[in-house]
Amino acid sequence: MIPTNLKKTTEWRFDDILFCIASDTGSSRVWFGSSDFNVYEFDTSQEKPERTAFTGDSHESYVTGIVRVGNTLISCGYDRRMVWWDIESKHSIRRVDAHDKWIRAIVASPDRTRVTTVADDMQCKVWEVATGNLLASFSDHQSMTPHHFPSMLYAVAASPDGKWISTGDRVGHVAIWDAMSFAKVGEIETPIMYTWDPRARRHSTGGIRSLAFSPDSQFLAVGGVGKIGNIDHLDGPARLEVFRLPGGERTLELEDNKKKGLIEQIVWSPDGKWILTAGGDNNGFVTVHDADSGVLAHQDGQDGHIHAMTHDQEFSNFHAASHQRITRWSMNS
Amino acid sequence: MIPRLPLLPFESLMRLNLAALMIFAFAGSSELAASEVMELAKRIDDHINHRLAEENVQPTELVDAAGFLRRVTLDLAGRIPSTSELDAYLSADAKERKQQLVQRLIESPDFAYHQRNQLDILLLLRQEHNDQWREYLLEATRENRSWDQLFREVILPEDTLSTDPRPVAFLKRRTNDLDAMTNDTSVTWFGVNIACAKCHDHPLVSDWTQAHYYGMSAFFKRTFQTRQGFLSERFDGTTKYTNTDGEEHEADFMFLTGTKVDVPALEIDEEELKKLNEQIKTSESDEKADSPPRPEFRPRAYLVQLALADEENDFFTRNIANRVWARLFGRGIVHPLDQMHSENAPSHPELLSELASDLRESGYDLRRLIHAIVLTDAYARSMMRDSVAKAIGEASFAAAVPRPLSPRQLSLSLRIAGTGPDTLTQWQSDDWAKRRDELERQADVTARRLAIPDDGFQVSVSEALWFSNNPSIENDFLNGSNDCLVGHLKQIESNEEVADVVSKAVLSRQASDDERQAIADYLNARSERRENGLKQVVWALMSSPEFRFNY
Amino acid sequence: MNQSINRRTLLKAAGTTAIVSNMAALNVLSQPSFANELVRGDKSVLLLWLAGGASQLETWDPKPGRPTGGPFAKIRTSIPGIEISELLPKISTRLNETAIIRSLNTKIGDHGQGYELMDTGRVGEPGVQFPHLGAMIAHELGQLDSRVPDYVSMYTSTEGRRQGSAGFLGARYNPMFLTDKMIPEDIRRHEAITDVDHQDRAALRDFFAKKFVRDLASPSVSSHENAYERVHGLMACDYLFDIDRERQAMRDHYGPTQFGQQCLIARRLVEAGVPFVKVARAWWDSHGQNFETHRELCADLDQCMDALLDDLKQRGLLEKTLVITLGEFGRTPQINGSLGRDHFANAWSCTLSGCGIRGGSVFGKTDEDGQTVVEGEMNAGDLFATIFSALGIQYDKEYMVGSRPIPISDFGSEPCREVLA
Q1: Which of C177, C208, C217 sits opposite B540 (nearest CB)?
Q2: H or E stretch covering C44
Q3: Closest residue to B459, CB basis, from C200, C202, C224
Q4: What is the share, in percent, of chain A residues with pLDDT greater than 90?
Q5: What is the CATH number of the domain that holds C295?
Q6: Is B221 left (phi over 0), alpha (psi -120 to 50) or beta?
């Protein structure tokens, strides 16, 4: 059943920018990372919830990713660090200087024993949750763009069947890796997600910002922005491409000009029948497509660019980490 | 005590105009007009000569016939003369030929084009390539539309909107910049640059205070442009300014003369005004919105009225008389042209007054004024070639001053020079109007590359490089095909004869002996690549300063 | 080449036919040892124009940890106690000849008006054409009969492209303006004419010209002569724009980007005695994705400015060359929803390096969030006064426009003595 009614129901305003969010299956707590360098806990069921900052080894720059593994949160940031936090005590338990450059994203393996990070050193690194040990570091992403500028490695995803990891970068290159051996098993190109302007402004914009495997691990969705004319702004269509694995043939190519900007987060429905994308330009959007036909099922906007979205187990409540807000979206399916 | 002008209904203005028309009609018979023009020319010379005598300055001799032909053809027709025009002039009867030449040129189709181009420079500074505007100006110059009529059409485009939307271009490009609209209007139509008086009373000129600046600005403040591109005025709006002592003042609607306008009380209530203002706001952003109604009180209409009624200072008339003079002499009677104020006296005050009153009485007939000026001795002087010249000073008009060709004069002249003399003769006897129109269009591309000369003009090295190296020069002006000058020269065997032909075609004069020799030598050294040699000779003459300037 | 050749001889030779076949000999400019032997009594300005408005928070005045600071850290530099953005690592080690000014408050946040303000040093007024900086420098430092251009401006991107003009100083001082190509237009001889004919043709032109110009006291007519006289000298300079003449190592030093190539051309021009070269790096106007954009553009600036300062220093040219980084304005401390920063002229930065500058200095302070200047506020006029003073030009000298005196720096401007050597 494709949701036709997904609406923003609540909004909590803040002064800072929230980049990443994780939620609790059991309760109504969420955790999010901020531009004020903090990791916060927040109970969304309260009338007027107050956020609580975690303490200890804090980040020294924007917190760009966060995952929950059991009673632990693991966050990553522009400070090149990963921090392990104990949820109950709200205190840090481990800190790892993980990359040479700004860490863009973190994802947990389906069995929750590992986490994978990607950073602008163009490395994909796999870590053991329990120990913080580095298990592997690999890449096939070019550190410079074809136009001789430093590149970025923005997105990473882990397939639900535990077999694959995928990474996606600034110039639209996706690599697919064996999650156990870390060997590269495939690659996909989405060059339209990279806009290089040689004439008017002579720099680039865009990039792959989100990746998500389908629940059956047979498809990979790639999200970013389409070609932008005026690269001073995020003034381009939100762009989604879906590929069948392992062959890599494209099954969907969708661009949306009504709600423009970057697709920052992709969420597949548990039955694999619809795809939710969230992101924004100067504002935010949530768009739902039919996963087979690509038909637009539902779309709505919010104030504040959405950087990340999490959902509860029933897929009825979503929480978005946004520009100066946390918002809750609820669905009637 | 600064007089306040009562509200003048438009009827009165219409009557004034009609009177002017009648005077003009009376003077319409061509013989009468011709003798009146000669009279005016003589009076002009009297003024000039009077001062020369007073200061014991010896003017230069009158320029020779070929020199006069070239100068006046450039000034009236916007181009150099053709070889056949040169030959005809040199062989015509010396007593009659000057008047006949001037008459012919003024009546030629060329005259309107050149006038149009000069007005285009004055009014829009060619800052946009607005074909419709240029068409409008051409129509105006073809019918010799009076200067005050043009003034009304350009400053009050709303009045002709239903019949002709084109005159709006002057104000339209300045609607987003009140200061530019105010000062450009003041400079262009009144010869007064008051920009300095914006932030403080003018530091150097006591005539202009902040009250003057903001007084003028007030006439434009209410002007706005709808999204559809139409100009109109608001129902309310005043200007406030702060002086250097920090005191705030509200500006009156005050013309340069100090005359103020009584602003009538607004007869609509607050509610109504609010609605109107909303309508205005909508029309500014919404393309589909209707134009809002116009107010009864129209500031710009008052500006026009005040400017035309001001006979004492007469900025309006004196400005255009001065500018026409400056165009033909290279220097205004008041100089610089935008510094008409009491501390910058005209070099010949009675002359300027005479020109102004004549112009006013003629109904602002610019063609007549130009006609008279080019018949004067003062206009026909040769240049001063002497280090003593520095001591004399340009303000006496004792000698001609070399004036750079405008972009279109240069572009057109290059085309004329690059055309075969026989071909040109044919064109001029066939359908010259049609040919002239084509040439005007062809000249457009080159003209846009060139800078519009201003005071103290300097040729840029880019122009020299362009003319020296750009492939289009060869193609456009040095073409070897039959219709072209180089093609024509190819048929001539004698190198000395080539020198004579090329000198007349390009420099509009006979070659001197040493020049003939230099060209012949040059070609002799290139006998095996004669066509190239010919092109190079033509180029050398086209790129000389003699060609580049009107002297 | 073992002989000692001075610039005048070299360039005079370049203007004659004889040297045409010897253009390769001019390659010696690429060798540092030779450059030292060039007699350089004159100074130059090299303006790196950061078009669109670079963010001072991502360059010279970072505020990490503040709500307005953004994600990037600051790094130590070769100036003790001074830190700049981590996006400029190479430059951070090379600030010994640089002064950073952090306290510009120029108030105008519009591209066109900001450009006019920062390129003329004053707010314009209708009816007066103020000359742009390059024209003023060309006028002050250039030579009338120069065989090299005296004002070269490179602006290749289309966004924000503006030419700069000599205004009331006259077209003589207009820039040689390079846009689509990295070589000036019309500087190469058309193939339809041989070099000998080109020169002889000019001589024939000259013959007619001299007859006409004889004893005429007209500056306009003289300017025509002057323009044509300079043609062959300028044509002979086409090699200056040819970076293929540089060793690969040198080209690699500047890097493969277009900005790098143009900075290398700029060095060649300055080395040959061009008094003013402007290289525009457009387009910094990061209303969205400010941090991603600055990653790219700062990397470019870092590489190229570092190479340029190093190269100039190695050739002994830095003490005679003033290198400026400047834009129309800075960017807002406030970060918008697209993670961008908008126009901001209340508290921003620029740098001056080299000639007449007290290297290793920082002038002016902004508040902890970068919202206002708290110490050492400077405006455009003050910056110009400082630039002129660094070059040994009297900053309050006046040009006469008609009867009106116009000071080269705006009324009331004062140079910042703290950054002057």
Answers
A1: C208
A2: strand C44-51
A3: C224
A4: 92
A5: 3.40.720.10
A6: alpha
pLDDT digits (tens, 9 = 90+) for C233-255: 889 999 999 999 999 999 999 99
**Neighbors of chain B with 3 or more C-beta pairs under 8 Å:** C
C-alpha span between B462 and B537 (Å, rounded): 22
Tally the C-alpha atoms within 13 A of residue A149's C-alpha that lie toward its C-beta: 25
Note down the domain range covering C134: 7-187+237-419
Number of domains in chain C: 1
Could you report the per-residue pLDDT of B176-193, keeping only the tens digit for each? 888 889 989 999 999 998
Q: Measure the CA–CA gap between A177 and A159, rounded to whole angstroms.
A: 10
Question: Is C201 within the bounds of a domain?
Answer: no
Query: What residues of B are in contact with residue C189 (Cβ under 8 Å)?
Result: 469
Complex ipTM over 0.85: yes
Secondary structure (3-state) at B74: helix
Whether residue A2 lies inside any domain: the answer is no
Q: Is C82 an 8 Å CB contact of chain A?
A: no
The answer to whether residue C47 is domain-embedded is yes
* C-alpha span between A34 and A18 (Å, rounded): 4
- Tokens 């700062």: give the residue: C298
Q: Residue C305 falls within a domain, yes or no?
A: yes
pLDDT tens, residue by residue, C50-70? 999 999 999 999 999 999 999
Q: Is the pLDDT of residue C126 over 60?
A: yes
Q: Say how many domains are in chain A.
A: 1
A184 within domain boundaries: yes
- CATH code for position A77: 2.130.10.10
Q: Does some domain include residue C212? A: no
Q: What is the mean pLDDT of chain C?
A: 88
What whole-number distance in Å separates Cα of residue B319 and Cα of residue B339?
10
* Cα distance between residue B205 and residue B344, in whole Å: 9
Average pLDDT over residues B284-299: 88
Q: Identify any residues that bridge with A157 across adjacent strands, giving them in sequence order.
A: A166
- Quote the tokens at residue C231: 């043609």
Contact A282 C335 (CB under 8 A): no
Residue A3 lies in a domain: no
A154 domain residue, yes or no: yes
Q: Is the model's pLDDT at C13 over the cut of 90?
A: no
Mean pLDDT of chain A: 95
Q: Which residues of C touch A282 (CB under 8 A)?
A: 288, 336-338
Q: Work out the pLDDT band at B27, boundaries 50, 70, 90.
A: very low
CA nearest to C415, candidates C390, C407, C397, C406: C390
> Can you give B329-361 as a three-state secondary structure string?
HCCCCCCCCCECCCCCCCCCHHHHHHHHHHHHH
Report the alpha-carbon distance of residue B315 to residue B313 in Å, rounded.
6
The residue ranges of DSSP E strands in B51-128, in sequence order, are none
Distance from CA of C288 to the nearest CA of A (A): 5
B-chain residues within 8 Å CB-CB of C398? none
B394 touches chain C (CB under 8 A): no
Average of per-residue pLDDT across A160-184: 98
Distances from the Cα of A283 to the Cα of A36, A260, B78, angstroms: 20, 9, 59
pLDDT at C205: 97
Range of the domain at A255: 9-332
Choose from B468, B470, B538 for mutation: most chain C CBs within 10 A. Answer: B468
Helix (H, G, I), strand (E, B) or coil at B305: helix
